[in-house]
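Regression test case RT-17, inverse folding.

Input:
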């Protein structure tokens, strides 16, 4: 009897991924019920079934069998949902691209970023992409460039990034995730069949889809601790924003966490620096900050010495207070959902004492998507 049951039960366990894959969800449930009825008919005359040294009554065995089949069935549905996500085409998640022309200024780009609440702008002409400018680029300019000109005097074709990665509309999401990680970029330009600019897909688009398709997928060990970055760049609330700019620029990141006694009290991103960028290149009453070339050279060699507007503002002046946090044992899809719901790109990870233990970002979630798990 035990051998006969083993054959029937193993067949039922394999069914969802093999011979019954052609059935709909409703038909599968019906077939599982038929398997259960057949098994119960065969063991109806038996009061119990001995497996090894364990004895199961008929009722307990029925419950055990039902739960086992249910888990197998749910695992298949969740894996199918995840598989559907990775096979989504880029055209299904891409967005309309917002563009400026090369003759526009950095001030135009700054205002457009704030107006549309976006993080990057494509520089194009005649529907052909020429470059891209991002919040991170503006942060770099704030820190590294000589303050001889105002934003309204800097043309976009002088500072835009010309290394563009373009894909066609049929590209799958998982391939796009790998492409972003390979080139260390946060967006891909989508071209139509005529190689004209059709749209843009960003990490936010991939993370948003991840949050929807991977929700509650507890059967896969995609937890925050597995993908989070443990080395977190931090500043104190009373440190000048020069320190935040320096860390973001030198480490090519988009945010730093503001801590007090190892606990996160704020966070600074490239977007937080956009409002004060209007002061770039100017001093009091419209007069420009005057820095001699030797002094500027010394500052570049000794980067801990801030100058101009960067010495006036402190981290507490621009940071977002009381940042949203998450624990390391949380599901990765939960982190993705929090990011999209609150329109943020990174979440500090804390332990049970609210001590900073790491940070999870959109890039980390993209790594989860790109992995072969």
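Golden output:
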């Amino acid at each position: 009897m035990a051998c006969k049951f083993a054959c029937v039960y193993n067949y039922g366990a394999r069914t969802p991924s093999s011979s019954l894959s052609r059935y709909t969800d409703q038909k599968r449930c019906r077939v599982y019920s038929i398997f259960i009825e057949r098994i119960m008919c065969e063991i109806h005359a038996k009061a119990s079934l001995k497996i090894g040294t364990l004895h199961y009554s008929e009722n307990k065995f029925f419950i055990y069998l039902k739960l086992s089949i249910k888990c197998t069935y749910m695992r298949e549905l969740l894996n199918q949902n995840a598989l559907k996500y990775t096979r989504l085409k880029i055209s299904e998640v891409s967005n309309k691209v917002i563009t400026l022309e090369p003759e526009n200024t950095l001030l135009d780009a700054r205002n457009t970023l704030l107006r549309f609440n976006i993080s990057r702008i494509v520089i194009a002409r005649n529907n052909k992409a020429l470059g891209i400018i991002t919040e991170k680029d503006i942060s770099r300019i704030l820190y590294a460039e000589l303050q001889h000109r105002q934003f309204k005097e800097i043309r976009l074709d002088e500072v835009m990034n010309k290394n563009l990665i373009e894909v066609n509309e049929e590209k799958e999401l998982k391939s796009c995730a790998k492409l972003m990680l390979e080139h260390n970029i946060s967006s891909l330009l989508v071209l139509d069949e005529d190689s004209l600019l059709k749209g843009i897909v960003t990490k936010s688009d991939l993370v948003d889809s991840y949050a929807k398709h991977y929700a509650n997928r507890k059967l896969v060990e995609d937890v925050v601790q597995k993908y989070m970055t443990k080395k977190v760049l931090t500043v104190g609330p009373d440190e000048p924003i020069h320190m935040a700019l320096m860390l973001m620029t030198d480490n090519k990141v988009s945010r730093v966490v503001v801590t007090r006694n190892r606990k996160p009290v704020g966070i600074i991103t490239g977007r937080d620096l956009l409002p004060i960028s209007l002061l770039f290149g100017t001093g009091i009453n419209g007069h420009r900050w005057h820095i001699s070339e030797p002094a500027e050279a010394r500052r570049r060699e000794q980067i801990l010495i801030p100058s101009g507007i960067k010495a006036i503002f402190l981290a507490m002046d621009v940071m977002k207070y009381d940042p949203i946090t998450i624990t390391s044992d949380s599901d990765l899809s939960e982190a993705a959902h929090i990011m999209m719901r609150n329109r943020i790109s990174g979440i500090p990870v804390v332990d049970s004492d609210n001590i900073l233990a790491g940070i999870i970002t959109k890039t980390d979630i993209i790594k989860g998507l790109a992995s072969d798990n």
